[in-house]
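Researcher: Sequence of Pimeloyl-ACP methyl ester carboxylesterase follows. Predict its structure.
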Amino acid sequence: MMQQTEFGPAGAYIRWTESQGAGPARVHVHGLGAASGPYTAHLSAYGELAGRRTLYVDLPGFGISDRPADFGYGLEDHAGALAAVLDAAGVRGAEVVGHSMGGSVAIVLAYRRPELVSRLVLAEANLDPGPLSGAASSGIAGWPEEEFVHGGGFAATLEKVGWLWRSTMRLADPLALHRSACGLLRGTDPTMRAMLTGLDIPRTYLVGDAGDDIAGLDGVAASGVRVVRVPDSGHCIMFDNPRAYAAAIADGA
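Model: Prediction complete. Tokens:
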């Protein structure tokens, strides 16, 4: 079923789809220019992830959620909207699975609202200000906002990215996409890395063996985060090796 709740600006709604089940809720949060349904709904077909209450959340500006022009779209803004979803759904102690920017949002949520999150699973989440190696967020943020939204930057970006990312990015609001990319590069204070390493909950960090070059993972592991390298996968582990991705999410749940 689809549900919605207000967030931020008056009259703006964030939406999610949900499947019923037992145990702590599992919450999927997508990355920049993506949407949770296309990126994660197929995972529930794997037996190890079936039977759990699962929420597929589209962040403001993406997928089926509203895209208000008077919203900041920074990581803290997105985390506040995600908290509104969990509050409205009556969820506490969720297992939050976040990909890329969605993982960064999940970290901020767990840091700011610890009662909402009992476990984090992060797939190639941004941990520091600035881009991951080769990440397109830096290219989006390199455009002035007006030029990106109205001067051809959005169209040029759609031409540049591959068909898979373009399939959901073309549905995103250009203003939300640009502000989200800028917020991702701006990061948080403390940094997402500092928040993550300071949390006292089970944490798993997934890395595609052909994915982004993420620095400092030895230090992340030393803080108690379980770092797992997923074979035969790049940045979008859920598409490249969905079975291994599902198994990694289920391991420790």
